[in-house]
Amino acid sequence: MKTTGIHHVAIVCSNYEKSKSFYVEVLGFSIIKETFRSHRNSYKLDLLVGNGDRIELFSFPNPPKRVNSPEACGLRHLSFEVDNIDESVAYLKSQAVQVEEIRIDEITGKRFTFFKDPDDLPLEIYEK
Asked: Which residues form the VOC domain (predicted)?
């Protein structure tokens, strides 16, 4: 198999309007397309991140809770690259988003930190 990149990351949310607002208004992702699938009572929101990356935000009635352990098998976190981590942290805090202290990646020497989306999905910002 020869891949050319990651096409998208899919996220299931518990409150569609709250998560849509977070990803669009707070994080600033652009809406590509919003679709309501009546047969599933479900929304699918295609979002543009940066210059071509995509997130698909799904809503389903009564989705099961996420496993809380950060070391459990599966997706550990989703990371977004930023030019200036200090500005990004200040912005997130101005939007009432709780952000952990900035850390240094011991392997790359780059600065990063974590915050959570409305469903406690761990998100990271990582300085270029």
From this structure: 5-128
**Residue 70: pLDDT above 70?**
no
Alpha carbon distance 99, 93 (integer Å): 7
Domains of the chain by start residue, with CATH: 7-62 (3.10.180.10), 76-128 (3.10.180.10)
pLDDT attached to residue 75: 76
Strand partners, 123: 78, 115
Burial annotation 38-65 (CB, 10 A radius, 16+ → b, else e):
eeeebbbbbbebeeebbbbbbbeeeeee
| pLDDT tens readout for residues 30-63 | 999 999 999 999 999 999 999 899 999 999 888 8
Distance between CA atoms of residues 62 and 115, nearest Å: 24
Distance CA 117, CA 77 (A): 11
